[in-house]
Amino acid sequence: MGTGNDRLGVTILEDISTLILQSHDLDETLRNIVTLVARRMGTEVCSIYLLDEDRETLRLCASIGLSPEAVGKVSLKIGEGLTGLAAEEGQVVAILEPKTHPRYRYFKETGEERYHSFLGIPLFDRKIPIGVLTIQTVAPRQFSADDISTLSTIAFQVSSIVINARLLDSIRKKEEEKSAFARELEKTRQSLIDKERPAAGQTNGALRGTVACPGLASGVAYVLDDNLGFPETLEDEPVEVASELQQLELTLEKTRIQTLFLEKRVTERLSQSDAAIFHTHLMFLEDRSFLEKLRREIHAGHSVAFALKKVVGEYLEAFERMEDPYLRERAADIKDIGRRLLANLGDTLHNPLQLKHPGILVAREILPSDMATLDHEHIRGIVTETGERNSHAVIMAKALGIPALVGVKAAVRSTPPETQVILDANSGCFYVNPAPHVTEEYRRLQADASRELHRLEEFRDLPAATRDGEKVILRANIGLISDVNIALRNGAEGVGLYRTEFPYMTRGSFPDRDDQYQLYRKVVENFPDYPVTIRTLDIGGDKGLPYFSPPREDNPFMGWRSVRVSLDNRDIFRTQIEAILMAGAHGPVKLLFPMISGMEEVHACREVIEEARANLRREGTPFASHVPTGIMIEVPSAVQMAEQLAREVDFFALGTNDLIQYMLAADRNNPLVNKYYDPLHPAVLHALAQVTDVARRQGIGLCLCGEMASDPMNFLVLYGLGMREFSMPAPFIPRIKAFLRDLDSAVAIKAARDVLTLSESAKIRAYLIEVLKEIEQLD
C-alpha cells in the first residue's frame, strides 16, 4: 500500500475509534462507520450487511446512500446477489456495471439501479462469514489494489466491532440465566479460599516447586493474580457516592484516552490491523451495561475499587464459562481492560504488568504473550503455580536468563504484593518474608553466584572448543527482537532457532508481509557473519494466538498445530515464506519447517516456497536466490524416516522439547506425568544417535536446538554422539563454553558409547555424574 493510502487508513481507523466513543450501541456505531467510509473513500454508497442467527440470511443493517427504509428490511441468502456472492466465496467482489453481472439482484426498496460500480468485502469471525461491507458509486470506478487493501483493513475493524458487540450481548443474556444455586456455590468456594489464606505478611517457611531455569534472585514480589491485581478482599467501608462516581468517570476517561494513545502507537510501530484490538477495548469501556453495573455498585455504597473488582470479575466468569474456546480466550481482553482501569484508579493500587523497579514476578501462570509484553529488564525471577517447566513462556524466560520456579502451590495467595521474597531456583525454594538468617545466607550465595558469572564472562568472546581443540558451534534460540542483544552479549554464533510465533502473540492480527520482512531483516542484519535459522509459524499445543484460535481438541499437542496449520492456510504460509526470502537478501538465512512427519509435508512446503519465489520474481522484489531448507526432527515418524528425509533437505534441526514428549507419551506441560519427561531416557538417546548417524552419512547439516543442550550432563552425551552444532538459550552459552574447555573428546565419545548400552535412565544419570566428577578433577 502506498504512503498516501497508509495515511488514509490510519486516519480512518482513528476516526472509527472516535465514533465508538460517540456511539451508544451497535446500530449507531455501524451507521456512523458507513457514513465515515463513504465520505473518506469518495463513494456515494457504503452499506453493511450482517448474517442473521440462522447463518444463512444477510440483512442490510446500516447504509449511507441506499434508501433509509431499506435498512433492516432488505435481506438475501448467502450466494444471492453480488453481496451474497462475496459472502459465499469469502473474498472480494469488485464489479464494473454490476447490473450486467449474472448474479446481480435488484431490490426496489434500495434505489440502487443508478450505481455503476460495486465492491463487496466479506466480514469474518475465524474464517466464518458474518457479513459483507459494500461500497457503490454513480460513476464507473475501477477500484485499485490500494482501495481494496484499505477497505479490507476497515472490514477487519468492523468485524471486530460486530463480534464484540454480540459477545457483550451474549454475556448479558448469560448473566440473566445464572441460577441462584451457582451464586451460592461460588460463595461457598470463596469462603473456603478465604479460610485457607495465610495472613498478610506471614509464611510457613519455604514454598517448594520445580526448577525451570536455575539461578538466585531476591527483591519485592509483583503478584499477577486472577483478580487483575485487585486485593482479594477489599474493605467495604462507607463511601461518599458523589465522590466515588466522579472518581469512576475520571478513571474511565483516563483509560479511554490511554486506549486511543495505545492504538495510535501500535498503528505507527506495527500496523493498522495490529491496533484493532483496542477497538474492542473502547467498545467495552463505552458499553452501557458495563457502566451501569459499576454505577449501581457505587450507588449501593461501595467504592470504585470494589465495584471494578466485582463487575470485571463477573464478566471474566461469564467468558470463562463459555463452551467455545475462542470466546473463553476473549477473557484476555477483559483482563487487560481491568488491569488498566486499576492502574488508572490511583496510586493506592498497583498494576503488576507495569514494573516500576526490579522484582520477582509471582503468578498462577504466565502466558507467552505476557512474557512478550513485560519489561524484561525489571524481572529478576519468575514463580508460577502451574507446573509447565517446558512451556514456551518458561522457554522465553530461559532465553533471557531469568531464574524460574514452576509448580509452586498457593504462591499467589501466600505472597502479598510488594513483599520481600527470595527465589532459589537452584534448590527449588521460594521464601516469602524470609527470616533475617535466611536473608543473610542467600546474600552470601548471591555473592558467590555473581563471582561465577564474572568468571564466565571471559568465555563469552572465546571460540567454543574442547580441551583437545575440537571446534563446536553454539548458536542462540531467540523469540523476540530483545533476545538479539542477549545473544550477542553471550557470544552466540548466529541464531539456530528463531521462533517466529512469539511476536505474533502480542498483535491483534497476522502481521502483513512487510511487517514480517522488517522484523526478520532486523535480526539478520545483527548477525552479518553468521546464519539466522528462521522457523515458520509454530502455533497450537500451548501456543495460541488471540485472533486465530484452533478448534477445540481433546489432545491439541497431537492435533492441528505447527506446519499442519500452515499448510491448511497457504496464503498466510506463503506470505511468511516470502518475507523470509526477502530478509535473506540482507544476510545468510536458513528456512526451517516444524513438526514434519513425512515426505508429503516436505513436498508441500517446497511447493509453497516455489509459489513464494514466483510471486517475488513477478513483483521484481529482491530476495535470496538460494536459502538452505531444513526440517525439525521432533516426532517419532521423522526419526524413522530420517534416511529418506535427509535426501530432500539441506539440514536437520533436532527439536528435543517435543521429540521427548512424543516419544515418551509425556505431555511436557502436565505435572502429573512430568517425571516421565526424561531427556536421558534410553529410547530418546538411541533416537538421537540414529538421526546423528543419518545426517553424518548423508552429508547434511545437523543442529540440536532444544533445551536439552543447555545442561552439561546432557551436552556431554550429545557431543559424544557426534553432534557439533547446538542452539540454546543465549545465557547458557558461556557456561557450555567453559565446560567444553575441560572436556576431552575421547572422554565424551566413550561416555556416549557406554550409556547406549544401559537400559535405565537412573543408571545412565549415575554413570554420567561419575564422568562429570572425573572431568572436574582433571580441571
UniProtKB/TrEMBL annotation:
UniProt xrefs under InterPro entries: GAF, GAF-like_dom_sf, PEP-util_enz_mobile_dom, PEP-utilizing_PTS_enzyme, PEP_util_C, Phosphohistidine_dom_sf, PTS_EI-like, PTS_EIN
Biological process (GO), any one: phosphoenolpyruvate-dependent sugar phosphotransferase system
Designated name of the protein: phosphoenolpyruvate--protein phosphotransferase
Catalytic activity field: L-histidyl-[protein] + phosphoenolpyruvate = N(pros)-phospho-L-histidyl-[protein] + pyruvate
SUPFAM superfamilies for the chain: Enzyme I of the PEP:sugar phosphotransferase system HPr-binding (sub)domain, GAF domain-like, Phosphoenolpyruvate/pyruvate domain, Phosphohistidine domain
Entry similarity comment: Belongs to the PEP-utilizing enzyme family.
Organism per entry: Trichloromonas acetexigens
A Pfam family reported for this protein in Swiss-Prot or TrEMBL: GAF_2
The entry's keywords: Cytoplasm, Kinase, Magnesium, Metal-binding, Phosphotransferase system, Pyruvate, Sugar transport, Transferase, Transport
One cellular-component annotation, GO: cytoplasm
Claim: Transmembrane is one of the keywords in the record: no
GO molecular function: kinase activity; metal ion binding; phosphoenolpyruvate-protein phosphotransferase activity
Lineage: Bacteria, Pseudomonadati, Thermodesulfobacteriota, Desulfuromonadia, Desulfuromonadales
Domain of life: Bacteria
Swiss-Prot/TrEMBL cofactor(s): Mg(2+)
EC number: 2.7.3.9
Record-annotated GAF domain positions: 25-172
Subcellular location as annotated: Cytoplasm
PANTHER family, per database record: PHOSPHOENOLPYRUVATE-PROTEIN PHOSPHOTRANSFERASE
